[in-house]
Amino acid sequence: MAKLTVSDLDLEGKKVLMRVDFNVPIKDGVIGDDNRIQAALPTIKFVLDHKGKAILFSHLGRIKKEEDKKGLSLRPVAERLSNLLNKPVTFVPVTEGQQLEDAINKLTDGSVLLVENTRYEDVVNGEYVKRESGNDPKLGEYWASLGDEYINDAFGTAHRQHASNVGIAEAMHKSGKPVAAGFLMEKEIQFLGEAVNNPQRPFVAILGGAKVSDKIGVIDNLLSKADKIIIGGGMTYTFYAAKGIKVGDSLVEKDKIDVAKSILEKGGNKIVLPSDNVVAKSFNNDAEHKVVEGDIDDGWMALDIGPKSIDEFEKVLKDAKTVVWNGPMGVFEMSNFAQGTLKVGEFLGSLTDATTIVGGGDSTAAVKQLGVADKLTHISTGGGASLQYLEGKTLPGIAAIDNK
Ligand code: AMP
């Protein structure tokens, strides 16, 4: 169902509450990667250009005790945002009360304010009360009372039920105020939603990463939707064990072998496993290593897919019209075992006739490292959220946005 979006709203002169994802790495007050701030700019600029008063909320890190607050202020983000927008950003160092209300009342049309880290509300008077991350309805109601409209542009937290994304939206509904998606959220829903519910075929999913247990839900949901599911990374070897292929010292989740068996039975030839692997003597970049096909002997562990598998995967991918990729094909952090992941990323970048969607930290890092990120259709900004979307789950943050 289509969701209400920021472009459907009448923004002029309105107090526009916006949930953005400014959860960026900050060390000693210095921001590392500001991608997430950049990603929120289109929606913020749109609101400002249409003379709305933007009141921004975001979480940053996790706060479990009073001392955690010190290093987790959003103040440095306000400065960076101000540079990026080339206009002043009012930073309010609190999350509720007179100081915040006065600052909001002083806003002029087309100006912007950033509220302190919403997770400051998780610790009140030294106690870990989780007002924000436990979705205290009073907090959502209070924040909702501060504005006329609410926009959620934080896809990365859409799988969580917090006061700043769900509580506030519900309170807005109750008072008859609109709840809309920002452009970033709209894009995520559009691409992930299309891929899962209405893909151009052939639709191929590539799933990697360490554990089968993290991806069972995704595989289960995609079994009935995808034409092929390519499996790589550490979880491959639980599938090997299920097929009776020797795994040596490779990563295996013994308690998931039966699940892997039933996935293989259900999936039949939809499931594509690597036929060769790069195996090493130990979990170390400098360890002795070689390529083997099929069985892996004791004393060796598979840390990457092999060249033949890469060729086979490319054959499956070359005619695909929709590709979703989540999770590395091997121990990508170690250069000797990064080839599988890099080759898959490179190949996706060369597919000009397909919708290509990448999610998850390692796969995203791979396509960025390769410089092919801008050749892909969509890079999801939410790891956990995009996995849950692929599992076919309803994400509370998205469910709380008004339908058109
Ligand atoms: P995930 O967080 O589930 O996406 O898994 C990512 C992690 O899986 C990365 O840290 C990889 O190093 C790890 N990984 C990928 N392939 C293997 C493998 N064959 N053996 C052990 N770990 C792996």
From TrEMBL:
It comes from Lentilactobacillus raoultii. Keywords: ATP-binding, Cytoplasm, Glycolysis, Kinase, Nucleotide-binding, Transferase. It catalyses: (2R)-3-phosphoglycerate + ATP = (2R)-3-phospho-glyceroyl phosphate + ADP. This is Phosphoglycerate kinase. SUPFAM superfamilies: Phosphoglycerate kinase. It is found in: Cytoplasm. PANTHER family: PHOSPHOGLYCERATE KINASE (PTHR11406), PHOSPHOGLYCERATE KINASE 1, CHLOROPLASTIC-RELATED (PTHR11406:SF23). It is an enzyme of class 2 (transferase). Its EC number is 2.7.2.3. The keyword Ubl conjugation does not apply. ATP binds at residues 215, 333, 360-363. HAMAP family: Phosphoglyc_kinase. One of its GO terms (molecular function) is kinase activity. Belongs to the phosphoglycerate kinase family.
